[in-house]
Amino acid sequence: MATACHYGMPLRDCNVLIRTLARRGSFARVMAVYYDLRGRGLVADSFTYPFVLKAIGVLKLSVEGRKAHASAVKTGFRWDAYTASSLMEMYTMLGRADVARKLFDEMPHRFLVLWNMMIRCYIRCGRFAAAVSLAEEMERSGVTPDRATLVTAVTACSRAGNLSLGRRIHAYMNALFGFSLPLANALVDMYTKNDCLQEAVKLFESMPERNIISWTILVSGYALAGQLDMARALFYQCTEKDLILWTAMINACVQHGSYEEALTLFRNMQMQGVEPDRFTVVTLLTCCANIGALDQGEWIHQYAEGRKMKLDAVLGTALIEMYSKCGHVDKALQVFWQMQGKDAAAWTAIICGLATNGQASRALELFEEMQIGKAKPDGITFIGVLSACCHGGLVDEGRKHFQAMKEVYQIEPRIEHYSCLVNLLGRAGLLDEAEKLIRDMPVDKDTMPIFGALLTACKAHGNVEMSERLTKQIPEQDSRNPDVNVLVSNVYATASRWDDAIRVRSKMTHPTSKKTAGCSLIENITLFTFSFTAGRGFTEVPFVPLELLDARFRVPHSKITLTRFESDNGLDMTSFPNIWATNSITGSGSMNAVDDISGVNIAM
């Protein structure tokens, strides 16, 4: 409607319209007005170019960008400071920061606006060290900065991990301008992101004025430093909480595994009348995925649809991971095909989800489609691909993809990739090949997963000799891991060597050797998630009807390990079936098994 009557307008009115449209984000309409005035022979001026060049950058119109640049040179506005800074910003948005720097260097007079823009350009394209270097060059040149310059420079210092210039700015902040809240917030953020939490707290406490951004930065800083209790205390100390602060606290809880607290915060946030945005929704979906809270995840999905949130790559990937980890892979596929702009993360999420849920052939089909498209697989994608091969017993396919990862995509395999391949070979009974792969692989700090995979295969195939040989190869720090003793004892138990099994298990009675307790999470009809942890007294566990467990879980096969032990009343219970050691468990809850590092398949 705004552009329906722009035809025939004089340049001044066109400039007003262009500015209004640009501020509304209607960049396509900005270009329509620009094409019209150019077609009528009107010459753009310094009031036209900044908004038109911004529109060109946002819309990624490289050809139009070069034409506009040539027009600015022809009409003499190339040397106008605001036109030049807009050209620099445009080229950076088009991925040509090198051209932006060339324009900056060619300017006969480097005005402050040009310094500020070039520093921001470097930050925009991720060249933080270059941004800091330019800020230091500006300092040496004797150019007097303004508040915007200092905030931009501190942001660059924060991202580059270079605190020298940032501390100098902090030192003369008050001397130059007096207290500046945006600059103080930027400094607190810089300190928290570079392991200088004490300096951040000291500055925060000395600030004569704070806003919600100040509180949010420090709450996130405490969470980043692993101090969830301090983050929580500061959060409740703030009397006026906005959406960003609520989201920061929820995200802190998710990062530290306090998933139920995160969901409780979400409920409290809603009761306070604060409506979540897409960032909050993505964080909450991650939370639901980690605890298998399907019902709450579905409710959040419905909430996002009700609020007309765009199903882009970020939101779509979070939904795919949530549904996949809760075992609803059909729903994950539905979300995947509805997504707009599938990126590598989305493809990886659905491939890993299908693989983990046992749909190996479908996962590999999607991987083939991914390779045909524009998305490029990464290391995590190949973990999903190798897992799919493992679930499907596709040994040759697994070998092929492992080689392609190195030779075609130049991705150096990590311990997770070796573990997948060892698991694949072990399940196929190719134990010698798996052992050779371990011998030939580069030394890694954390070798336990790969040894665990082969020890599990030794148990499945009754190869006691290899398990004993592997135990001697495990690094000393890993040999004290109780999971190693559990696996080795299970190998002995499978071979009915009970004395050896008991001897290995007895090592776990040492004070420094403690096995991590298994944990189960059950979501009931009220949307609350109950947590059960092995070793806790029954008084700490809420009552859950047997019908609920029967409805949520099913045991698809009955491969068991016989565990020999004596009950408290002295009865020999050798034949008691330890089904949780090897069974695949499926349901809308999630369960971590007790006795097997890699032999339990969980619906994730």
TrEMBL record:
Per-repeat ranges for PPR: 111-145, 180-214, 242-276, 312-342, 343-377
PANTHER family in the cross-refs: PENTATRICOPEPTIDE REPEAT-CONTAINING PROTEIN
Protein name: Pentatricopeptide repeat-containing protein
GO biological process: RNA modification
GO molecular function, one term: RNA binding
Entry annotated with the keyword Cell division: no
Keywords for the protein's UniProt record, in alphabetical order: Repeat, Transit peptide
SUPFAM superfamilies: TPR-like
Keyword DNA-binding found: no
